[in-house]
User: What shape does this take?
Amino acid sequence: MKHNVGGVDKIIRIIVGVALIGAAVAGMAPWWVGVIGVVPLGTALLGFCPAYTLLGVSTCPTDKQ
Assistant: This one.
């Protein structure tokens, strides 16, 4: 599993994930919105997005060797 989620992308995913989960916990959104919030949070923490793999996208900086 090669990392394909870069730094700024990770930060945005964490913010969105926490916001969705927080909204569901606070009762401002249905419970399923919190479940959806787990997806961006999980992909940020793992550094891997399956959708990026299918689309051939990577926001990780390339390694210079």
In short: The mean pLDDT is 93. The chain has three helices and no strands. Residues 7-25 form the longest helix (19 residues). The two ends are 20 Å apart (CA to CA).
